Amino acid sequence: MPDTTDPARMKRNVWLLFCCQALMGASMIGQVAMGALIGHSLAEDKALATLPMALQMLATMCASIPAGIVFARFGRRAGFIMGAAGALAGSLIFALGVWRGDFLIYCLGAIPGGLGFGISQHYRFAAAEVATPSYRPRAIALVMAGGIASAVIGPELVKHTKDMLVPFLFLGTYLMLALLPPICMAILAVVDLPPAPPRPKVSTPVLDIMRRPAFMTAALAGMVAYGTMNLVMTSTPLEMMLCGFGIGASATVIQLHAVAMFAPGFVTGRLITRFGLRQVIVAGAVLTAGCAVVAVTGRSFGHFTVALVLLGIGWNFMFVGATQLLATAHAPEERVRAQAANDVLVFGTVACTAFASGAVHAQAGWEMLNLVTVPAVILALAVLGWQAWRGRQAVGSAA
After folding, report:
1. 399 in a domain, yes or no?
2. Where are the alpha helices (DSSP H) in the chain?
3. Where is each Major facilitator superfamily (MFS) profile domain found (predicted)?
4. What pTM value is reported for the model?
5. Into how many domains does the chain fold?
6. Which domain CATH number covers 268?
7. Span 20-40, pLDDT tens digits
8. Max intra-chain CA distance, the chain
9. How does DSSP classify residue 298?
């Protein structure tokens, strides 16, 4: 087990996980910046432009079950190495699809790429396991803040390597992204990670875990946070292209969005400690709704930037809060099954919104794409209020 009694060693482990999260996230953020554009150029039906992203998110969802099995039987290190190998394979298959100009091959790259990204989502859970209870909110937020480095690495690679192997636009980018997973594997060799958890004599059925109000609220908050963010983010490069902006401009907006997603991680844990989980999740929901308001009022570079920055901060507050709330919904021996069930729901939603993003954008337009996020935010707030009411009722009954 990682030594949580030594503060220096504990923080070292958290920062190493931060680096792993940064490297694995760079591939996904780079893919967001170019995936819809490549899909638009390769697909005959332009409504399928976001299909590769949808497949990648579907694979991310499906990763939760095999990841849970590997984590439970072999520990975190083996699972994370498997995820890095998937990200490596995904980058290489994407590169092959671009080189051949084949939409089908390009879509196939989304499967191992999505599996790798799905497994990398468990770095935030590993952060909770290597930290003391008092440091846990900050550890989760700091590891998720690794996305700040991802926000720099991914889009910058896109901007500086997209023409590296002309006439194959973005081929050089995918070959450069393929260098990141091996570096992640090297870091995983030195970080202290928990072994496989002990197997309980009697396992709590997953459905029983999922019926708990804390689990239901955490899962829904995570689904709304990631689903609304992905719905808008996926089609942003397409909308900017249709408005006359170049690849560099859309990559910059995605980069600023990604920074906004992860930079608050340095303070979100402190905000949760000071103001409480529910207050931070509510603030994230309000910011997400604010994105829709800004997005429908104009299509200048400033409108795109402000909307996506609000969306990023809103995602961070809601998703970090949901992750911390999930940790209160299960016993230690239930953690792998609870986390896997949560991520199936969250990334199933993300897969649906990735595919729906292209279809809604093509059929209903940019304004409607943003407005449909508002009812989802209202639903999350309603369930959060219901869970708080249930908690007060339970305390009253106990008294």
Report:
1. no
2. 7-42, 51-74, 76-100, 103-108, 110-120, 123-130, 136-144, 147-161, 171-177, 180-188, 206-210, 213-242, 247-262, 265-275, 277-295, 301-326, 335-363, 366-371, 373-398
3. 214-399
4. 0.74
5. 1
6. 1.20.1250.20
7. 999 998 988 888 778 878 888
8. 72
9. -
